[in-house]
Amino acid sequence: MDFIGAYSIPNLTFILKGFLITLEVAFISIILSFLLGTLLGTLRYTRIPVVARLTAIVVDIIRNLPLLLIIFFMKIVLPQIGISMSPFWSTVVGLTLFEGAMISEIVRSGLNSIDKGQIEASRSSGLSYMQTFWNIILPQGLRRMSPPMVSQFISLLKDTSLAIIISLPEIMHNVQILGGQNFNYIIPALILAAALYFIVNYTLSIIARRLESKMH
């Protein structure tokens, strides 16, 4: 192991550039998957006959596919039908679809957890279904969803490493490159990558625990 060589300024810069891409992919995917998951979960909660059923089918299909397969599909298969994306956006779209499907279940469960008595009381007070949903159900549901949703975002950040399969220059890709240049760099580089992942994910886990404690 060569910690001094592995942690030289050029190598540290190379690893940190990869981690920056990891964070960029995660940040964009978190926002998009939250929006998609909230939409899908809401559609399933409303139980509009055809829409809810079709949404459930789509969500179940995506949730039961490996994320690696979805990312690979975005980069390799879509160009065959004229839809070409960079490794960055292939990863973002793949993560958004997969995590959005996961988050939709969190959203649906959160909305279903709201006491039916509150809904009936709101309706009897003159509020329409949509007013009840936006003012009573959704705000409370989002608070209850927060802890599991943050946990899902932690998984999303870790899952960005799967983009190594399509050569996205994220942190694990760059660690692999360094290891290929000098095998003595691989363990120090992996230790640094693990530390960076740990710092971000541990911070998110603390947020999740605090949000959960506020629920009780």
TrEMBL record:
Residues 19-208 form the ABC transmembrane type-1 domain. GO terms for cellular component: ATP-binding cassette (ABC) transporter complex. It is a multi-pass membrane protein. It holds the Pfam family BPD_transp_1. Keywords: Amino-acid transport, Cell membrane, Membrane, Transmembrane, Transmembrane helix, Transport. One of its GO terms (molecular function) is transmembrane transporter activity. PANTHER family: INNER MEMBRANE AMINO-ACID ABC TRANSPORTER PERMEASE PROTEIN YHDY, MEMBRANE COMPONENT OF AMINO ACID ABC TRANSPORTER. Belongs to the binding-protein-dependent transport system permease family. This is Glutamine ABC transporter permease.
